[in-house]
Prior knowledge:
Largest sheet: 5 strands, antiparallel
Strand order of the largest sheet: 15-14-22-21-20
Number of helices: 6
Distance between the termini: 74 Å
Shape: elongated
Structural class: mainly beta
Bound molecules: 2-acetamido-2-deoxy-beta-D-glucopyranose
Helix content: 10-25%
Amino acid sequence: MKGYLCSASYLLLLSTLLAFGTVADKLQPGESLNVTQKITSSGDTFALGFFSSGNSTNRYVGIWYNKMKERTVIWVANRENPLTNSAGFLILSEDGNIKLFDGKKSVIWTSNVSVIGRNSTTAVLSDSGNFVLRRTTDHAVVWQSFDHPIGSFLPGMKLTLNIKTRQSIRIFSWKDVDDPTPGIFYAGIDPQTPRQMMVWRGSEPYWRDGVWETVVSAQVLQMQRNHVGYITTIANDEEISFLFTSSENSNIARYVLTPTGAIELESWDDSSEKWELLSSTKNNNCSVYGWCGPFGSCDNISLPTVCNCLKGFRPKYQQEWETGNWSGGCVREMNLDCGTKDEFRMLKRTKLPDISISLGTISAEACASECLSNCSCTAYSYTNVSGWGTWNCLIWVGDLIDLVENFNTEFNLNIRVAGPQLGTDPTYFDEEEEEEEERTLQADQPSDHEWSCVDDIY
Ligand SMILES: *[C@@H]1O[C@H](CO)[C@@H](O)[C@H](O)[C@H]1NC(C)=O
Ligand SMILES: *[C@@H]1O[C@H](CO)[C@@H](O)[C@H](O)[C@H]1NC(C)=O
Ligand SMILES: *[C@@H]1O[C@H](CO)[C@@H](O)[C@H](O)[C@H]1NC(C)=O
Ligand SMILES: *[C@@H]1O[C@H](CO)[C@@H](O)[C@H](O)[C@H]1NC(C)=O
Ligand SMILES: *[C@@H]1O[C@H](CO)[C@@H](O)[C@H](O)[C@H]1NC(C)=O
Ligand SMILES: *[C@@H]1O[C@H](CO)[C@@H](O)[C@H](O)[C@H]1NC(C)=O
Ligand SMILES: *[C@@H]1O[C@H](CO)[C@@H](O)[C@H](O)[C@H]1NC(C)=O
Ligand SMILES: *[C@@H]1O[C@H](CO)[C@@H](O)[C@H](O)[C@H]1NC(C)=O
Ligand SMILES: *[C@@H]1O[C@H](CO)[C@@H](O)[C@H](O)[C@H]1NC(C)=O
């Protein structure tokens, strides 16, 4: 390395780079940047170089919006290994990888891909903020920063989960707003119930989106001055993906996974030169995964946030529950009959609980009876989606967790409880009483299902 740095061609390349100043948007093999240099994308939208953040003297290689006065960093390379002084450089090495060396000439970060052939790549900072390593011969992308989202999620990026290999693209949070050290949150597509987005805190779920209903879905996000963003989700047998695009190849919007675990959509306001918050996943305590514990339901419109036990359930720890510690959740007041005496109580407009099992597209009646015929089934949800639907019927086995009521969705949850009970509060489900009775009658009628599990259990 040392010898190579001193070679004449290196100096020639370096001077070429300097001659172009900040016009250069790429690194060719052997070209490097020192801590005071940067490259800028062709449209001048993004810059890549070294930065320090907050009061720290640690230096990182990152990408930021080039024209904004207040630097907003959207990607960081060496967040686990900062440079502690000004001796260091980023180079497109002869083996094809981008490498960051410290003053002692040790590699502290690398794109780390195996590339065939020496001097076979070019690293370009695109105007969408993507730092792309391409094979020179066929322009194939061998590595790109968009596959490693750090803190920000920009138009053009996608989060993915490969069903077979379990490989995924996730977004990782910063430790603090001015500290790019890895934080405790990350977000991506849930491998357990693969058609939902999740934010994890360490290895624990922290926030959860609802289950996607359709194979393909598109959502338009209205942003400033007639700019729109689009969210597209695609689910097939191989890969689930979540794409963010915008009406023009612009820098005006981004999602941020904040150091406190919220996903925020921000739009840049040119006149105030500030990021404007358009939405956040943190509305109230109901946004916190499992806030009300098993079989507890979080009321999205109560203030302060309160938890209710589902109909037919009572607090597991009464005293703690009364003091507002809801995490213990609720337990059944009466054990299930596990046969024809069980019935379903419908809770309208809910955020459906976590860990659902899709039974595909079957009729509402089949959905109910599939649930009844399995002793461990605690709830089902039926929705009438036509066309590109991936499911009509979801069932749950075991605890119902992360359930929110008075939630702005069309989903109803049918919760399995033991047959008619005394002393229950008739107002809680009053809208549904008549419908419930009908369903109960239906469930009592003989069907072509065998209730074999009754014998297995008792
Ligand atoms: C970076 O390179 C430029 C051009 O060679 C030089 O003027 C500058 O002093 C260098 N900075 C450091 C910290 O080495
Ligand atoms: C950074 O330094 C300034 C001035 O010394 C101080 O007011 C500020 O609190 C410091 N910020 C942090 C995050 O330590
Ligand atoms: C490069 O990748 C290999 C295999 O994926 C891994 O074992 C190695 O630790 C990585 N090296 C660096 C410097 O990240
Ligand atoms: C790779 O490029 C550098 C700089 O242009 C040159 O010095 C070196 O000889 C090249 N190596 C090979 C194997 O072509
Ligand atoms: C959310 O929970 C925290 C911690 O228990 C509590 O202090 C706060 O008042 C709650 N907020 C609302 C709006 O209920
Ligand atoms: C809340 O209750 C759980 C048991 O359900 C207990 O383990 C936990 O310590 C309690 N938390 C607080 C803050 O009291
Ligand atoms: C109930 O359904 C679950 C999930 O589909 C399944 O794992 C379990 O074996 C079923 N139990 C019975 C008794 O059919
Ligand atoms: C489902 O929707 C279709 C048309 O949207 C309608 O014809 C059908 O009756 C609905 N089925 C149920 C069970 O609601
Ligand atoms: C939940 O309530 C918050 C206000 O507390 C509101 O902003 C949000 O839109 C509600 N979410 C749904 C899906 O109804």
